[in-house]
Amino acid sequence: MSHTTGRGPGRVERLASRHPLLLAASVVGILASLVTIVVGVVELADRIDADPPVPTTIPTTAGPTPPPAEPTPSGGQPSAATQAQCWSATVAAAPCESEHRYELLPGGCDLPTLASYLGGRSDLDVPDAEARLGVVNDRCVLDPGRTVVGSAAGILASSGDDAWRLCYDTAKASYMNCSLPHAGEFVATGRVGRATLAECTEAAETYLDQSLAELPELQVQAVTTGRLLGGCFVSARGSQHLTASVRSLGPNTLPLSNGGSGDHDR
Questions:
Q1: pTM exceeds 0.90, yes or no
Q2: What is the pLDDT of residues 219-238, one digit of tens each?
Q3: Which of 120, 166, 175, 203 is the most exposed place for a label (fewest CB within 10 A)?
């Protein structure tokens, strides 16, 4: 008689015949384990092969907020023109767009400040106006010596500058603005003491934007006046008169009264 060990197919067959539900549960459990293993392997393969995720936005480090842009003054005029304060000849407050005598001069009370406010250069331009203290309380004002309309800020850089430049009539021995017939025009050098003839020649040629050798009708001399120290005087020779400023004359015709153009383009 042969004996079995209780293991192997025979035991499985006996268990299947005696307990069919237990066998079915075992098979289902084994299949579920196999499915779990297969799914895990597939997910691992997908993770290995997939490209790294691309962010939809790239974070950046924010820098300091830039300051707001400064507004650009219109027409190239100093921004002070939009804040100008003016007074009448009787020192009553008046709009600068109306007739007035005085205008507030901010920043100082001297010739360099005055020339800069008017749009000129203190080492070259001589304005027909003065910086004065004590007229309007303790404020410094510019005084053109006459009533004017409109702010004077930047006027020396405009087409209306002749009326704000200082000229002189030797026949009448009087100062006047350069829009009136005159013998000559004052030019600054930036010196405190009396200028030399060489310094005046250089300043005059810069002022004219032309060599004096090309303008035999003009002469230049160093002067010291009550309004100007270290200045120069550019004048017409003989009895001729100039009818406009010679500032930035360049190659244009001299504005002479005896057959000159009486005007020039600048």
A1: no
A2: 999 997 656 667 999 999 99
A3: 175
